[in-house]
Each structure stands twice: as structure tokens, then as C-alpha cells.
Amino acid sequence: ELFYDNINANGLDLLTVNATLKLVTGNPHKLDKFIDPQLLQRITKYCLEEFHHSDELEGLLILKILPKLCNLHILEENWGSVEDIISWILNNLDSPFTELRFKLARNFGKIVTLIKKYADDMAQELVELCVCDVVSLLKDKARETIDSDTLHSYLLILAEFSRFKLIPDNLLKNLVTDIIPHTIKFQQLRIAHIQGHLVRDATNFICWSLARNYESSDDITRKIFVNLLMCSMFDHDLVIRRSANAALQEVLGRGAQYFLDNGTTMKIIELSVGNLTASYLENTVRLCEVFSGSYPAYTEFMIEWLLDYNVAQNHDLHIVKLTCQTLRK
Known about the structure:
By secondary structure, the protein is mainly α. The chain is built from 17 helices and 2 strands.
């Protein structure tokens, strides 16, 4: 009654809606006693139309509300309203606010997990849609013209899908072949800076999520391993090197026995990623020594990374110079 009195007197507001829905979703069997179907539709319309792209706090609050609304609409079998919420999320992937993109991805993962309990086919279609959208984005557009905010949102969503174990085995190959090798190197040259670190960090998040939640084939795990190893050694950004190294430790801790011997694994784990110059001039030599004989394919992959990406494509002049010094050694 207090809720109805408040909205009759003052109209809907996001804080009150969020608090009320939190109470209702805790007692879903009493839904009809709290909110009638007409009011539920009114609240949904209000949330989806209320967002102003310049207001981050408003967007974060709406994203808190949407999983609760989805839960109630699914219980009422209002699948049209669920689709409206999904469309709203996908239409806001290009948000300029980093925290909002993280929240969007996290809650979209929750929504798809919820949908999977009641409509598995629909959930799988959403997962496949996101994977295919990223593949198309990377293939159909020149790197400099890609909207990095949209790409970042998609990658965070894929990481959440991986964390919730929503990605089927048939799509894992797309991730490690058509997405990760490209986004883990992503850079865009702008007038005053080089951007793309958020995309690379989100890629490391995907790799970490896959390592923790999937028992993938040796080939898939091996591809994740070599990309993370190169990123942890050669990325110019210390934060990215550390996030890649954290994901690499997860991969090595859970599945290194399938593609490395124990001695080699320990030598890789002991490599420091803190000093960029040392990573290039010292760690590269050590990796060549470690891989010589037993793992020539890994040495070849490293040389290709240094030549094809660091020298031929990298926008950071310091990295190009370091790479040239390394190759001379």
C-alpha cells in the first residue's frame, strides 16, 4: 500500500522501484499481491525509457533493476517484455562509461542464466548472437573504425558468459580462433594517445573465465596459453601484463600438464612481468632456451608475434624499438 500511495502521489522513481522489486523477487509466489501485471508493464516501460545516456548513476540503477524485472516477467511468461529488456541492453553497449559497461555485462550474464532455466534455446541463441557479433565486428571493420566501447562491452559479456558456463563447446573454437588472437592485441591510434587497453584487459578476463570454468581440449587450452604468455611478456601496459599473467597462472595451474612438462611450467611461472625492458631483453632469451628442443612451435609463435605484430602493427614506438633490440639478440 505504501508503494502504491507513493507512486500515485509522486509517480515512479528508480530508487523506490529497485527497493520494491528487491522485496517482490524475494517472494515471487506473492507477486500478484504486490504488483499487478499492468503496473509491472508500467515499471518496465518507465525503466527502459527513463535512461539518459549522459547520466551514469541513472544507468547503473536501471541495470540493477532489469534482472529483477526479467525474473518477474519470466514468472508471468511475458516473453515480449523480456525481449524488450534484452534489446535495451544490446542497444546500450556503446555506453561511454566503463563502470556501466561492467555492470551491463554482469547483469546481462545473470539475465541469460535466468532465461536458460526456462528457455534453453533462447539462451543459446543469445550466446551465439554475441559471439557472432564480435566475430563480424572484427572481420568486417577496419581496426581503427571499430567502436571500442561496444567491443569492450561485448567482450565483458563473453567473459561473464564463460564465468556462468553459458558458452557451448561448439563456440569455444570461435572464441580462441576468431576473437582472442585479435582482441588481445587490440590498439587504436588517436591524436593524443593509443587506446585499446580495456579491450585487451577484457580479453584476459575471457581467458581467465575459460580457464576456471571449462575443461577445454588441449588445442584450445594451448592457444589460450600462448596468447596469454605473449601478452604478459610484451604488452606495453603494466596493468595488462599483470592481468594476462594472472590468467596465465590460472591456465598453467589447471591444465599445463597437457602441453608442457613440469620443469618448463615452473620456469614460465617464475618469469617476472614487472619490468618491460627485462621482459623483452631477458625473458625472451629465457623463453627461447626453455622452448628449444621440445617446444619449437612456441618459439615460432613468439617470433611471429614480435615480427608481425610488434614491429609491423604496433603503434607504440618504444615497443617497436625494444622489439628490434630483442630480435638482434
